[in-house]
Sequence to fold (84 residues):
Amino acid sequence: MIRRLFLDHPASVGESYAEHFGVASRFGVRMVVGGIGAMIHGLLPFAFKTTGSHTIVTLHAEMVAKRTAKRDVETQVKTVEYVI
Fold:
């Protein structure tokens, strides 16, 4: 039960619990900062014009890059060719 709750998901993305905590925390802080910038932009349209959208684009690119790297490693492991 504990393993399923705390370890299965981090392992599925190639991270330990501590690594996953760090990555998720950094993403969360960056989302909060981007959200605050977007809220200020709503009140003061001249301020933080691209903060929210830039945050989303950056975080999405990081997530896709990490997912692609993980998939590439898994593919390489499955398709190792032996040279004699």
About this structure: The chain has one domain: 2-77.
